[in-house]
Amino acid sequence: MGLSSAKLHYLEDQAVLVGSLGAPAAISSLEKIRLAGLKKIVLLSYCGSLSDSLRIGQAFVPLRASSDEGTSVHYSGTKMATITPPGRLTTKLLSFLRRNSLPFHTGAIVSTDAPYRETPTWLRKMQKKGLVAVDMEASAVFAFGYFYKIAVAALFLVSDELFSGRWQNGLRSQELEQATLKYFKPLLDKPLL
After folding, report:
1. Which of 55, 72, 138, 176 has the fewest CB atoms lying closer than 10 Å?
2. CATH code for residues 7-189
3. C-alpha R_g of the chain
4. Other residues' Cβ atoms within 10 Å of the Cβ of residue 39
């Protein structure tokens, strides 16, 4: 599995969304299978770190997401400050990680439509709000789940460090490649739900 590939795996009544490319792409994929009885979504993707407590290759489970993207509002009806993953799937994901001795961090993530536009002002604003990671789809997938009453959980691996104000790209790092196999493969081989 290449790090930049996006894949949607169908596992009976659930979908495992791997490395989608932003909120519109993720939601477009999920809308297409929703009518087939989708009941659970596990988002497996990569994120940037806004905190020095998250380093390249480490696992992160968001307990809430802030929207700085344009898709969530179409499912929430309003610009939300934060949204938690719907359902109890996150609890099951955390249990799975603990049972398998896979270390992880938890916290809040912000989803953006403009990667590479994390300016110093934007970074300080997000850090002041207590956001520790950035991605492109979590808030939209959480809003989608609430709208359609579909349980959602997300597991991210840190691929970039932004917290210092300088971009540290880890997409081709051995740490990230090893973490991808260690964390994502078990969830694709044996769904936790």
Report:
1. 55
2. 3.40.50.1580
3. 15
4. 16
Which pTM does this prediction carry? 0.88
Half-sphere exposure of residue 116: CA atoms within 13 angstroms, side-chain side = 1
Rounded distance between C-alpha atoms, residue 62 and residue 85, angstroms: 8
CA distance 11 to 86: 19
Domain map (residue ranges) of the chain? 7-189
Which DSSP state fits 167? -
**How far is it, in rounded angstroms, from Cα 135 to Cα 36?**
27
Q: Is residue 19 over pLDDT 60? A: no
Neighbouring-strand partners of residue 154: 43
Which amino acid appears at position 117 of this protein? R
- Answer whether 141's CB lies under 8 Å from 27's CB: yes
Say which range, 36-40, 69-73, 89-93, has the weakest mean pLDDT.
36-40
pLDDT higher than threshold 70 for residue 18: no
